[in-house]
């Protein structure tokens, strides 16, 4: 992870190793990539539910954001507002846009624009399945919204 970035969930590498398996650590904390077509969420198309960060469980994508791109990784046309942070990635001699969890900085994958998919944003968030967990209901989103409302109310009382 970039040392110049800070996130609300700032665990040490040893703390992450205690809660992630080896593959999750490699991808989320060391910016790895799973082989195309190997992830459990590549061909997973529920009509409701929320995909959360496998590291910190922050809600990232609604099931309704997911689409079939044929790229070999789960693809989403948008994220939950504020859930994903974008960084310039110049690794491997290319310019790409890396996406990370806004709560813990865990590597999710990359976002690509202008590929012509028939989606509302013309974007493809290409995400490693290992970076994700899935909740069949919208409870993670509701919980986050309740926490944010409480924070705003507490700040307005000061």
UniProtKB/TrEMBL annotation:
Cofactor: Zn(2+)
PROSITE patterns the UniProt entry points to: MSRB (PS51790)
Signal peptide: none
Catalysis: reaction(s): L-methionyl-[protein] + [thioredoxin]-disulfide + H2O = L-methionyl-(R)-S-oxide-[protein] + [thioredoxin]-dithiol
Keyword Transmembrane: no
Pfam family for this entry, one: SelR
Lineage: Eukaryota, Fungi, Dikarya, Ascomycota, Pezizomycotina
Superkingdom assignment: Eukaryota
Domain MsrB residues, every copy: 13-137
PANTHER family: PEPTIDE METHIONINE SULFOXIDE REDUCTASE 2
Entry similarity comment: Belongs to the MsrB Met sulfoxide reductase family.
EC annotation from Swiss-Prot or TrEMBL: 1.8.4.12
Basic and acidic residues compositional bias, start-end: 139-158
Free-text comment on the cofactor: Binds 1 zinc ion per subunit.
Organism of origin: Podospora comata
Keyword entries, A-Z: Metal-binding, Oxidoreductase, Zinc
InterPro entries assigned to the protein according to its UniProt record, in alphabetical order: Met_Sox_Rdtase_MsrB, Met_Sox_Rdtase_MsrB_dom, Mss4-like_sf
The protein's enzyme class: oxidoreductase
NCBIfam families named among the record's database cross-references: peptide-methionine (R)-S-oxide reductase MsrB (TIGR00357)
Coiled coil feature spans: none
Stretches the record annotates as Disordered: 130-158
Keyword Coiled coil assigned: no
Protein name per Swiss-Prot or TrEMBL: Peptide-methionine (R)-S-oxide reductase
